[in-house]
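re: ur question from earlier - yeah i can do the single chain one, its not a big deal. heres the input i used so u can compare w yours
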Amino acid sequence: MSGSTQGIGFAISRALLDEGASVVINGRSEEKVQSAVQRLAAQVPGADVESIVADFEDPAEVGHLLESLGDVDVLVNNVGLFEVAPFSDITDDEWQRYFAVNVMSGVRLSRHVLGGMLDRGRGRIIFIGSESGANVPADMLHYGVTKAAMLALSNGLAKLTRGTEVTVNAILGGPTYSDGVADVVGRISQAQGVPVDGLKAAIISGNSTSLLQRFIDPAEIASLAVYLASPVSSATNGATLRADGGVLTAII
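and the output i got, formated as tokens:
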């Protein structure tokens, strides 16, 4: 599970542990990783959780992570960068950084585990995407473009699993109140002197296509991930499943 010390990644780790899975979490900081391990162990007594520290911007650290992995039955590609930035201000280096983390992390991890899954005839690869990959925001072009590439990667990899019990799918999440979003909302709330709940409501009300009319909880994304990781999802392959709260207006 890449990028799993907080937010959606942490919620998916918790949900998989609740189902009795052994989970390996990942983050960039030893301190944050160990804190996440301790929280998971406290929340799920008897949890079998391990960790590998690696920054997906650093090829050497990624190499160490790959070397440390044993057989993987379920891979969740979750790590990702996001920020609001004017297109004219996004440098080539920043574009490369976004592709390295948001796209190449999934390429490298999937390339490492897919062969073993195919040999064993079973396995799950899950990409945690975003509605921004289907409706690219003008103020987050680098994020949206890399999320679109992630969806294409997921779909293409699924075609390599024909005739096996290996599946590759993506979850297309909508506005989720992850730790990162909460931090941003908290800073804006403090700067503007506006209550956090009021600011959250204002942000969501500004999204005219949202049917949910609230932020999605990371646990709601995790529930869909647990389905995709489970045997009951055997006929779901090459798909992008939406947990977007109705933000996208297309019917497919």
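The radius of gyration is 18 Å. not sure if urs matches, ping me
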